[in-house]
Amino acid sequence: MIFDFDRIKKGNQPYIIAEIGVNHECSIKKAKKLILLAKKGGAQAVKFQTYKAEKIVKKNSKAYWDLKKEKTNTQYELFSKLDKFDLDDYKNLSKYSKKNKIDFLSTPFDLDSVNFLNSLVPAFKISSSDINNYPLIRKIAATKKPVILSTGASNIKEIKKAVQILEKKTKKIVIMHCVLNYPTKDVDANLSMILDIKKNFPRYLHGYSDHTLPSHDMINLTTAFILGAKVIEKHFTNDKKLRGNDHYHSMDINDLKILKKKIKEITKIIGITNFKRVLKCEKKSRKFARRSIVVERNIRKDQIIKNSDIIALRPNNGISVDMWDRVIGKKAKRNLKKHHSLSMKDLY
What we know:
Blueprint: H1 5-10, E1 15-21, H2 28-41, E2 45-50, H3 75-81, H4 87-99, E3 103-108, H5 111-117, E4 124-126, H6 134-141, E5 147-150, H7 156-166, E6 173-178, H8 193-200, E7 205-210, H9 219-226, E8 231-235, H10 253-270, H11 283-288, E9 292-295, E10 310-313, H12 324-327
Parallel strand pairs: 1-2, 1-8, 2-3, 4-5, 5-6, 6-7, 7-8
Antiparallel strand pairs: 9-10
Helix pairs in contact: 2-4, 2-10, 9-10
């Protein structure tokens, strides 16, 4: 499935992105293994991160992650360990993803990366950290491809500015709630922000990029889905016990399978009908649990019907109770006995 904005918008299943990021640790073999695991787990896409350390960060820039989990003290040191893939490597991974029928995505962190990813990806992802990087946003917008915009550590005003730039070139935008903190505590997930994003950007798709620790039931992601996230992104690994970088807050294939199972259960409960109507399974109940108008005491021919002459009783096999006001003031065409279910033929 190639990223199909309209299909995702109309569908009742979320588009799930397994973010391999740099959990491949610069091994093509491991990257391909992760692609296969993501496919087997049920993801619709894998996503990588494309950058060169010197184009992102100064050499003395401090770490902003949990140093107990990732002990590298500077951003430059960490990024420079994991920026070894080149264009040929990404071509290889894109081709391998296509062969295995899973979308290939990658987040570009510099202008050159946009250039060489353009022929490889069906859509572009913009990192939360670059939501105010207008040169990069303009470069991505110029490709006219769908854009997935993460909004961690931003406010509505900043999101609107980024969207204004994007929508000059593309109307296919996914706005992702995200908390830019690694790992994000559950209490900081603030999934209700999805509702605020939906309110402020009703024209576009909405999603959630998650940095919380995966739970046994994947409740953060399923809750995001219930709140309206049509695109769900989470870091992905083959082993959550691996030290360093993003492994510790990633989901693995078992988590992904649980997520898919839970989404299927939720979708079944939510249903495919998005407007209120009488369901087929309710038709019997509609007849037997609703009330019709019944004679409460004997009524003589030509008697004017008053409120005290009738009662509303189940089942709904005569004049429906919602016709009560139309019955009051009518005359009986004949004598009517108590418990008789009224019909319009009885009245004039």
